[in-house]
Structure prediction request, 594 residues.
Amino acid sequence: MSETIRVMVVDDHPMWRDAVERDLAAAGLDVVGVAANGRDALARFPAIRPQVVVLDLQIPAPDGVEVTAEMVRQDPSVRVLILSASGEHADVLAAVKAGATGYLVKSASREELLSAVRRVAQGDPVFTAGLAGLVLGEFQRRSDEPTTDRDDTLTERETEVLKMVAKGMSYRQIADRLVLSHRTVQNHVQNTLRKLQMHNRVELTRYAIERGLDAE
Amino acid sequence: MSSWTSPAAIAVESRLFAALAVLRVVVLVNAVALNVYRADSFERPVAGVACVGVMVAWTGFATWAYAEPRRRTALLLAADLALAVGLLLATPLVKGAGFSASLPGFWVIGALLAWAIHYRLVGGLVAGVLLATADLTLRQDVGQSDYGNAFLLLIGGPIVGFMCQSLQEMATERDAAERSAAMAAERARLARVVHDGVLQVLALVQRRGRELGGEAAELGLVAGEQERELRRLIQAQDAVTTVGDDETVDLVAELTRLEHGATVTVSTPGFPVELPAGTAHELVAVTRACLDNVRRHVGEDAAAWVLLQAAPDRVELSVRDDGPGIPAGRLDEAAAQGRLGVSESIRGRIADLGGTAELATGSFGTEWEFVVPRTATT
Prediction:
């Protein structure tokens, strides 16, 4: 990597925030800002323009999901990596649908965190097996609805890849098993995330039009 | 809290009195109109006008007085009923002994219903008896319609009283249920905050411990176990709150219990997957057998992943390990030697559920994949 990654850390636990900040800085990443709650995070975000935001889901209002949505709205190129202690299903899925690129449980090791930040910075989704299971469930639920557009359902290959991620297989193992390149596997996972988030935007737009909010 | 004094009961009472206020005006208009229409039957017209004036004034006063709970005193109710009875008793004096229609007429139901609302069944009965008695005793001859009116007073009072009591009890119970639901939700919210804080600390101890090494690393390991255990419990608890009857079981909650430390990861959809209890328990048992197999053949600390997917008509369940896989021909060889073993028993159990089982093995490890119809006949 030629340039240092600019990272913002948002967490309401000072000890935790400091530990993450220290680890990132020690690994040569540029921590350009920190915040302890959603309000401060959104206030500082436009000025410091980080590439990656390491975000705790459970922060004082606005919560991690709202912060993710707002940051992605302001800067679609920003990558949000969710760090969550409780890993509550609904919250994690909501954050990913709102535009987060990755998710890690807080007990992940320093190496896992650094690798996740680097991958997310390149736009590579960071999925845990658990998150992949949730996303699979979400697409399944969606395909059971009669009104779904075919555009935002998964292709067979994408489903296959996502299933393997949900079974804990690494991209390398998936590439070997399906006889694909590592890059292709990554693309499939990226498409999955894109479709999930696009569907969310379509839903939001539809909602806005129904409520007449687009008239402004 | 008593259904007499609870805020919900008082709210019900206030509503009924508001409705009664409208009714009082209707029966007043009716009474005034009838008295004006029959003005020529009055022996003492001045007294008649005075009585009508009293009814108008009392209706206005009663509407104001009953509007406020603290003004609904025994004195007010007694005065209300006394006035109604008094006007009935005054009828022969004003209209002469042979009167046919009483002075207040249906206006007396204002007092009757006030008693029924405030003193419920007993109040309605007492007021009904007093009014019916007053009405009947004054008449020289009791006609069919007089008897009918008295009978209505007698049964109307207690019925309205009983209904008022039932409404108040229901409102009180509903309030209590809403309160306990709100309390449960608040407790859950607080638990979430506490859990999150504890999880944060456990995760931090685990992480720093690993970096510091030595005894701290052991401490970190213990913290890590506790962290995963707590997270598993929270997820299982979330699943408990979803509704399901005794016949069906949420397979998501059941499988989540199999999650174990850093070794077993369970991935599921974010919604409950209800299955007949027998099918769900059998699937969990099969999953457990697969995981035992992983421990036996790959190692005590071998990682394994469980994935559940649910479509409306079927569930797909897979269990994978990261081991070296099963050497080609090994299973056939075992079968040829008559050792059907674990894998055959797993296949059999899934077949009993009407499903299919497939075993894949390779550089990616070993993987069982089960597809079971959701309308399984067991």
User: Anything to note?
Assistant: The longest helix of chain A spans residues 182-210. DSSP finds nine helices and five strands in chain A. The interface with chain B takes residues 13, 15-16, 19, 58, 85-90, 93, 105-107, 109-110, 129-130, 132-134, 136-138, 140-141, 144, 163, 166-169, 173, 176-177 of chain A (CB under 8 Å). Chain A has a mean pLDDT of 85.
